[in-house]
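Subject line: Sequence and fold of a protein, written as structure tokens
Area: Proteins and the way their chains fold up in space.
Start of record: The labelled sequence and token lines come straight after this line.
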Amino acid sequence: MGTVSARDLLASLDKTRDMGLVEETFDICGHNMVVRNLRPTEVEAVLESCKGLEDLPYVNAYQREHVIRAIVELDGYDLREVEFIDDEEPDPKKPGQMRRVRVERHKWLSDKVVRTWGQEVIFIVYRKIGDCTTKADKVTQEGVIFMVPDEQPEATYRRILGELKEAEDNVPPTLIDKTLTEFGYIRKSTADELKAAEDRLAQLRVDEEAKEAAEAKAAEAASQPISPVAQAMANRKPLNQSEEVPPPERVVVTPAQAPRQVVPAQPQGAAVPSRASQLAALEADADLVGALDVAVAGPSGVLPRAGEVAELGGSSPRPDAALDARQAASIIDQPPPAGINPKFRPPQR
């Protein structure tokens, strides 16, 4: 069985040291800084330091433990090969005197340097460590072909979702909603608010359609022709009690428009008048009605209004004029003319 010298083996494998570690250089608050991704043992130490912590204390400790182990250069001072730092502290056995102590690099950085930083600076340095991790993963996989993917899509989704939930505690809700909107996602509470907004929009749409239907119906009714009676009723103004009612217009009645006397039917057994007598009676009635119209209307030819009494033979009707009964009887109660009507012309045979 062959053997090999450890010194010779380490010398030949020296170039494999720190394989997979990627550094990132940047300036922050006017200071130059170099950080790198962590080794597995360092990640285990970070998780061990965060045991027993919850919520915000856990997040702060998780970020701080990453930062103090990832710094390898600060303001030009190289810390890559440094594991311990010699320092002094008060000697508990000799009050007033100092003693020399050896402190681990990450603990010394935590107590003497990082503890004095603001939370925003720690968060920015922690993000740069994430850039180192992403770059290291990309560099490591270059040139390597896998027959089976190292991580299934479901596992990738769960891992990324877990990291997002951890980072969500340190991000303002407004920024979270804005970021999710940029990628086309929303939170559950925002989805409920969107559903309520959609319901209100649908109700407004229904009200607007009802309003448009009412306006269309009113326009259709306005376009239809209106009967004269409905137009007159629409244009009619209410009667004001203070206004005087105008008197009705006088109606001029011509002799031809005057009512005719209705001849009563003859009783049975009575003598039937001759045709000549009937014609004479009709002509007499016509002359009588015409004379009566002229007497009542007067020279103006206008009949009196309701409630007025016409004066026979007068020039105009007067409300207080009394009708002479004898004069009316002499006009109306005249005996029918006897004999042959001089205007009668027998038909030619």
